[in-house]
Design a protein that fits this description.
Blueprint lengths: L1 H7 L15 H11 L4 E3 L4 H13 L3 E4 L4 H12 L5 H23 L4 E4 L2 H11 L3 E3 L21 E8 L8 H11 L5 E8 L10 E3 L5 H9 L3 E4 L8 H8 L3 E5 L15 E3 L2 H13 L1 H14 L5 H14 L4 H8 L12
Parallel strand pairs: 1-2, 2-3, 3-4, 5-6, 5-8, 6-7, 8-9, 9-10
Helix pairs in contact: 4-5, 7-10, 12-13
């Protein structure tokens, strides 16, 4: 398997290899040996396109799950490329690109017999636009790895954190406006901590630390050392990092648009914010009322305790079970977990 991954190099770093069909024969041979009863793909990337084609060729049902709003990614990245164009032209071109990309993505998902999506908004959209049954598929969290117990932050500064990519669709530039507004409000003791994939520690500015990519225990300590977690992305479909922050006992402040809003109840276990001013207002409330912040942080931790990978996969398996021709797949997954001695003889 190690050699296979090294050779195939599929779906890596959001890049797209136009010559990916060269892997078709090798993957087809592997699937024929494996003899799947169902193929599940996660989007129209290299693996998804190959998986859909092979499912059709082998005559097995296809399931697909939506993970990324590719159409919104396309619009925001195009906007960055067209930043020198007049605003009206830029809006028109980006709007066209977003709608066309969504149409093409929906056509791909119509190939599947049934679908999964990570939030209710996408469940409704896919059901309406594809005509396929679409089921909610959440995410799990390791509440031992991400926990308030890993907190080592001991000074009096208020730490505002962000974890993710530094890319246009993440809307990270909004944090510059937030930092500026906090300074104008006279909050000199706020520090911004960015754990960003592929970035180094230079060029972050005053009262800001750019850690670069963190993993494992380092990432868990970084989360636990935050006082608030700001996630301004409006394109994320779920927001795994929001779960990680909440499990770490950190209050999330998320964009009012996008999937993460479904994880947060404003004023209960975090905040939803429509603009930088609302983010700043939430931060100031938390900074000047530590007792309330601790109460909401405890609520955030409690809210994510229900998100386990076991429950996620049980939901997925139930949908497999209901799909025609997928019962054998389900039995093959669960059979090793059954203990024959626990069943009475008949």
């Amino acid at each position: 398997m190690k050699n296979s991954r090294a050779v195939l190099q599929l779906d890596t770093n959001l890049a797209f290899d136009l010559l990916f069909p060269r892997h078709f024969g090798r993957i087809r041979a592997a699937l024929k040996r494996f003899r799947p009863d169902l193929v599940h793909v996660t989007g129209p990337g290299h693996c998804g396109i190959l998986g859909a084609a092979l499912a059709y060729q082998l005559g097995v049902p296809l399931a697909a799950s939506w993970h990324t709003n590719l159409h919104e990614f396309a619009a925001r990245r195009l906007a960055r490329l067209l930043r020198l164009f007049p605003a009206s032209v830029r809006r028109a071109l980006c709007g066209f690109a977003e709608h066309r990309c969504l149409d093409l993505t929906v056509q791909f998902y119509r190939l599947a017999r049934f679908l999964f999506a990570p939030n209710p908004e996408l469940v409704d959209m896919l059901t309406a636009r594809t005509g396929r049954p679409t089921h909610l598929m959440l995410r799990g969290i390791d509440t031992a790895r991400f926990s308030p117990e890993h907190r080592q932050h001991s000074d009096n500064g208020f730490v505002i954190g962000y974890v993710g990519r530094l890319s246009p669709e993440k809307n990270v530039r909004m944090l510059v406006d937030v930092q500026r507004a906090l300074a104008e409000a006279g909050t000199e003791d706020c520090r911004l901590l960015l754990s960003a994939m592929g970035a180094n520690g230079r060029g972050c500015g005053r009262n800001c630390t750019l850690t670069g990519t963190l993993r494992g225990a380092e990432l868990a300590r970084a989360y636990a050392g935050m006082d608030a977690f700001v996630f301004p992305s409006e394109t994320d479909t779920f927001g795994n990092v929001v779960l990680e922050a909440m499990a770490s006992g950190v209050l999330p402040i998320v964009a009012a648009g996008g999937g993460p809003k479904y994880l947060v109840q404003s004023g209960v276990n975090g905040f939803q914010a429509a603009n930088p001013h609302e983010i700043v207002f939430a931060i100031l409330q938390l900074q000047y009322d530590p007792a309330w912040r601790r109460e909401l942080a405890a609520n955030a931790r409690q809210a994510v305790m229900q998100f386990s990978w076991s429950s996620v996969f049980e939901t997925v398996y139930r949908q497999y079970e209901q799909a025609d021709a997928a019962n054998l797949f389900l039995r093959s997954v669960r059979a090793p977990q059954q203990n024959p001695a626990s069943h009475p003889a008949t």
